[in-house]
From TrEMBL:
Chief location: membrane
Transmembrane segments: 35-57, 69-87, 120-138, 145-166, 205-227, 239-261, 267-287, 294-315, 335-359
Organism: Gossypium klotzschianum
CDD domains documented for this protein: STAS_SulP_like_sulfate_transporter
STAS domain segment(s): 407-511
Cellular component terms per the entry's GO annotation: membrane
UniProt name for this protein: STAS domain-containing protein
Amino acid sequence: MGTSREIAIGPVAVISLLLSSMVQKLEDPMANPIAYHKLVLTVTFFAGTFQAAFGLFRSGFLIDFLSHAAIVGFMAGAAIVIGLQQLKGLLGITHFTNKTDVVSVLKVVWSSFQHPWNPYNFLLGCSFLIFILITRFLGRKNKKLFWLPAIAPLVSVVLATLIVFLTKADKHGVDIVKHIKGGLNPSSVDQLQFNGPHVGELAKIGLIVAIIALTEAIAVGRSFAAIKGYHLDGNKEMVAMGFMNIIGSFTSCYVATGSFSRTAVNFSAGCETAMSNIVMAVTVFISLELLTKLLYYTPVAILASIILSALPGLIDVNEACNIWKVDKLDFLACIGAFLGVLFATVEIGLLVAVTISFAKIIVVSIRPGTETLGKLPETDAFGDVNQYPMAVKTPGVLIMRLKSALLCFANANFVRERIMKWVIEEEKDSKLRNAEKTIQIVILDISNLMDIDTSGIASLEELHKNFYSNGMKLAIANPRWQVIHKLKLANFVPKIGGRVFLSIGEAMAYFSI
């Protein structure tokens, strides 16, 4: 039902940890596992309901607050975190942390080296990691070998399992998957609890988990959509995730979302459509029914190496450098997401990036720029004198353009002071040049202005009063219909003598300049 072509759905570490930590406050999983199980399924139902509601009520615009720069940083940070998490399987570490930040993971890895550890896991994992990377390199160099990197992970699993089985490597310290319970999940419709004492708390947990799961899934989906160059429909993704989790709550599943590690593997395998999820589902179905015994000897290290092989392509250093060159505030969002994911959690990283993006919007909105215009030679056009040095200023006239789509309470005073500052500076320049004419007319081009509020209108009235007291006239050019409509309702147009014009040229002609 979604629009992402690469996203792979399943349980993820962050949601798993969040769900267990919040639900166990209501019910002890060790003391009463059945009741705990029912609460988790109910939370999953609520999470799915909220997600579907977000999509049906067209709330997909919320994902637009995840900027391109934030996604680049998020991807790089998540790739490193996922890679560090795989050290557990690659090194055969038995006691590993549930935290995802780099400091906690490195502490556990460092402490593991101080205890006896088995190198066979590392040798096995690294050998097949090198094999997968070589096949990927060959596939890029020779287009005819495109199939080689696609089948390399599957071949690695089969060969590694055979090696462990034939050499009895599990007896020598190699960690294996071991027993997997076969068969399909039983129905859990009758286990959902809507009448218990914890319904309100479960709904609250469901809402929190729903938002975080959606944020992560859409961030993952948009990351890979950006690489492939297509648009992700946030509303459809929300509806798809919602119905998926609702159905999951009916079939003994807890909250699932887009998995970064599985999606990375899916992407690197060359998937092109969402059909890959159906292939995965059918494969899991067949495996649960028939192949669970064959997977007994699969080494954990090979699974870690497959995930690690997919991560280098997610760290785009060149794009981060380009972001730095183009926009420093965007780079701040990028590095904020990267460091937040790396040293805290995925949620903190995304929150930092969104906060910086919001701050950027606010700063740009409350401190809009202004530019002085001059007439371009041999044309009727007017351009910024800084952009077009050949533009000619008209003596006695100051033409200014407001570079803001909104003149409101947040920026009205700043704009008024900025314009007054320009006028005073122009007056000083005129006196220093001994110009015959000082500024007599100020033409304000508001073609960029889409809307104005009462504070904005009040600032224009103050400008008019200041200019009038100093013997200058204010004229308005290029107003949008929404703006001129409000100016008329506020009785501003008569106050400036009706000097509102369709263009700067028309204003100049009116003053016979």
